Amino acid sequence: MITFRRVVEADFPLIAEWLSQPHVARWWNQEFTAEAVERDFGPVARGEEPAEDLLAFEDDVPFAHVQRCRWSDYPEELDAIAQFVEMPDEATTIDYLIGDVAQTHKGRGTRLIAALVEDTWNAYPASNTIIVPVVAGNRASWRALERAGFRRVGEAQLAADNPIDPPLHYVQRIDRPVIGS
């Protein structure tokens, strides 16, 4: 069973370690010095930003970092993606990384995403949709989303996290199941 808890400042060294791993750095492209991690993750950990940073645990061992937020809390990003796909009110988004490369390509990402989706429905009861743009070159990520039940609903030209990537993103979507169907 996968569980989640909010990131606290004591988790920053672990996040820095994961961000430094080549398989993570390729797609996240973030600085991982102590100062950079504090700068990038501190405001969310302290509740100064509306997003959530969470650690994912399996057997009480952290193995992944996930982020989620409501699109409406970040109007610039919402406006950018809304040019390409329909964005329902209260739509949320997620992002994720598995810290140890030895834990990748074993279905764990798909299980992580599925657990995060279920947790998101509980954490955001007004949200009926999760929409995730993934840089087209990150096949492992968009395939894990599809295996977790997402479907591709479009393509978008968005700034990539890593400047070596072209702006093409595949936009994936999952809708909250309708009770009784």
> Can you count the helices?
6
Number of strands: 7
What pattern of helices and strands is seen along the backbone?
EHHHEEHEHEHEE
Q: Per the principal axes of the C-alpha atoms, what is the gross shape?
A: globular
**Gap between N and C termini, in Å?**
25 Å
> What is the assigned CATH homologous superfamily?
Gcn5-related N-acetyltransferase (GNAT)
Average of the residue pLDDT scores = 95
Radius of gyration (CA) equals: 16 Å
Q: Which stretches of 5+ consecutive residues score pLDDT under 50?
A: none
Sheet of most strands: 4 strands, antiparallel
The main sheet orders its strands as 1-2-3-4
Could you please describe the fold and organization of this structure?
The chain is of the alpha+beta class and 181 residues long. The chain has one domain (2-175): Gcn5-related N-acetyltransferase (GNAT) (Aminopeptidase). It is 34% helix and 28% strand. It contains six helices and seven strands. The chain has helices at 12-20, 22-28, 34-45, 75-82, 108-123, 139-147; strands at 2-6, 52-58, 61-70, 92-98, 129-135, 151-157, 168-175. The strands form two sheets. A four-stranded antiparallel sheet has the order 1-2-3-4. Strand 2 (52-58) and strand 3 form a beta hairpin. Helix 5 crosses helix 6 (139-147). The longest helix has 16 residues, at 108-123. The model has no long low-confidence stretch (mean pLDDT 95).
